[in-house]
Description:
Elements: E1 3-6, H1 12-20, E2 24-27, H2 40-49, E3 53-56, H3 59-68, E4 75-78, H4 84-97, E5 105-108
Parallel strand pairs: 1-2, 1-3, 3-4, 4-5
Helix pairs in contact: 1-4
Amino acid sequence: MAQLYANENFPLPVVMELRRLGHDVLTTYESGRAGSAIPDDEVLAFSIAEERVLLTINRKHFIRLHRHRPDHPGIIVCTFDLDFAALAQHIHDALAEQSDMNGQRIRINRPR
């Protein structure tokens, strides 16, 4: 299973479901970095240092960062979805399909 880092705005119920599915998810709160208005490039640098795939709903900024800094362990950008279990399952399925997340960016969009 994947080692993930959930950005501060990432929904906790999705984190809990990903953990139930077997993933190792570190939250911004658990890392002691919550509420500090840490710039996105520093969030990505932390995920790189911790060798964790970054989970975020801050799509625009992290898609741009992916282009400028492709040396990351992976970025998963998600559309916000109130069906937290479904969002977690989509992330889980995407990770299962990807043999190596290094330098990869995956988009998880809410079904229409």
